[in-house]
């Protein structure tokens, strides 16, 4: 683990010099390799497990504790995803990535956030596994066209249905 310096600017009072004063604070932890991927994937799994129970017509409801008022009962995947904030900052990074997937799906389509979250977990697991085996993360086929490799989606099968009227 590396600690990198971050530079924070502080303005001095107007009565002194107007030039900003630089203060160095060592606040950034940087992790590389398998440890970082494992912790991020744990966060992805925690969020996806909480959201996955709401999937489909027989999906279950989730109760979300709120700081004020009564608890919120919902079956909406994006609402569950937004409510999750993990204590470990590395796990929280993975969870935030999947939260962005749910938010973007909600904005673009308005529905399907639970499915998008479960697919994001499957893609993250397969991608991290491929990288752990020594593949180049930039030239991964998953990054270019995930539909060319249906094994990435596990049990999900992509089917086309002809529209004959």
From TrEMBL:
It holds the Pfam family Cpn60_TCP1. It comes from the Eukaryota. Its main location: mitochondrion. One of its GO terms (molecular function) is ATP-dependent protein folding chaperone. It is found in: Mitochondrion. Gene3D superfamilies: GroEL-like equatorial domain (1.10.560.10). Keywords: ATP-binding, Chaperone, Mitochondrion, Nucleotide-binding, Transit peptide. Belongs to the chaperonin (HSP60) family. This is Heat shock 60 protein 1.
